[in-house]
Amino acid sequence: MTHFTRDAAPAFTQVSARVVVAMLRRGEVSPEELIDAALARIAAVDPAVNAVPTLCPDRARAAARRLTDDPAGLDLTAPGWLAGLPLLVKDMTDVAGVRTTYGSPVFRDHVPEHSDILVDTLERRGALVLGKTNTPEWAAGANTFNDVFGATRNPWDTRLTCGGSSGGAAVALATGMAWLATGSDMGGSLRIPAAFCGVVGLRPSPGRVARAPSADPWSPLSVEGPMARDVADVALLLDAMVGPHPADPLALEAPAHPFLAAAERPQAPTRVGWSPTLGQWTVDPEVTAICAAAVRRFEDAGTLVDDTVPDFAGAREIFHALRADAFVTTMGPLLDRHRDRLKPEVVWNIERGLTQTQAELSAAKRGRAALMARVAAFFETHDLLACPTVMVPPFPVEHRYVESVAGRRLDTYVDWLGLTFALTLTACPVISIPCGRTRDGLPVGLQLMAPPRAEARLLSQAALLERILGWPTTPIDPREPA
Asked: CA 251, 200, 434, 3 torsion: positive or negative?
């Protein structure tokens, strides 16, 4: 076990959430000390990366006092009991009394009266919300910048993007400003910044994490999920997030056994299907080589790795249609009132949804159903599907999005997310884990996908590969360009 002296509070930010939560439960450190340690780390490194634009330390300290003074209503025996651990929440998620902008100038000064039920759930399980992490406007696009707070930079090279839309969360974790952070994911918003920043992001099955309010509570496209520096810490946060809620019609019951228990017992999959492109896209050759070498390391544990994957034909058209429909549902009214204050990509997405026909939308739904059937058939013979998380390494932060990959021109601002949005369509849980670095020292992520609602299996098998690869999880200091 790791031991700390009382005058070594900053060192707390260097260790795992599991270690710190264990210390909290034993009374070896107080929530106040952890708040102070996190704030000190944020003050030291955030000016270089701009990941945590909003802090609420008074709220966190008040919540810490309630843990001992007024514990009624707390889930003290829940598997995900965090015992006073500070964490950060993405600025797409409402926190009562805390500025929440959604990265939008329209909501620059918005302070919600009520928290999203995810925040309520986490706080019942001993989490202390310390601040909000930066996101692109309305979480649209995978480069974290907006007109409210500016751009968030990659700590491995501050000239580059950290990805998005949960970019601030990934950067905060990579630099030790937080032990745990929440994210959300429609087309890859948990997984892409995790890959670009060398941390872990899990897109759970729809319904695994209850969410509300939502303009479209029946949609399986967008989910909330956990981010951390390693697989077991992701499992710990997932345990703190899960459970049914009457406000979310898709919400699943909590599992009989904690997800952390699965992550702490790594097991080898029997058979893994691997493809660098899912048969649909072009991928940077260096990213392909790094991910191929990583997934082959499963063979060290006796796993058979082959090139069998489901047929993802039509995934691009299906996702574009469903995403556009989702934008109309959630943000259509904003276009009428604030067109001139929305970024062009958001306007384009909404207008695409308004102009597509019912026949096109119905065809997309049928296509998704057929894809899910092919995925189900794949999982009759395989435990996992593996592919790169992102087609390219991190790119200059000034570039709004990737326009071409290995000489192949892309048509829209989201096409470079194809490897993640294709897996979104399956409604399966997907995790991105760090699997290597480019010649320039930039992290590369590998996606692993398991059958629907098989998060426990996914976490166990991802933890095994993480152990084999030996990726370092100690936070880094932001690296200024030479």
From this structure: negative
Give the C-alpha separation, 181 to 200, whole Å. Answer: 11
- Strand positions, DSSP E, 212-360: 223-228, 271-274, 304-306
Residue 95's Cβ-side half-sphere holds a number of Cα atoms within 13 Å equal to: 28
Number of compact structural domains in the chain: 1
- Residue 210 CA to residue 117 CA, distance in Å, equals 7
Range of the domain at 111: 19-469
Looking at residue 186, which CATH number applies to its domain? 3.90.1300.10
Q: Name the residues annotated as catalytic.
A: 90, 165, 189
pLDDT at 253: 96
Residues with pLDDT less than 70, the chain: 1-10, 482
User: Nearest 5°: CA angle at 289, between 285 and 292?
Assistant: 135
Candidates 385, 391, 388; CA nearest to 282 is 391
Q: Is residue 108 classed exposed, middle or buried when 0-12, 13-18 and 19+ CB atoms within 10 A define those classes?
A: middle
DSSP 243: B
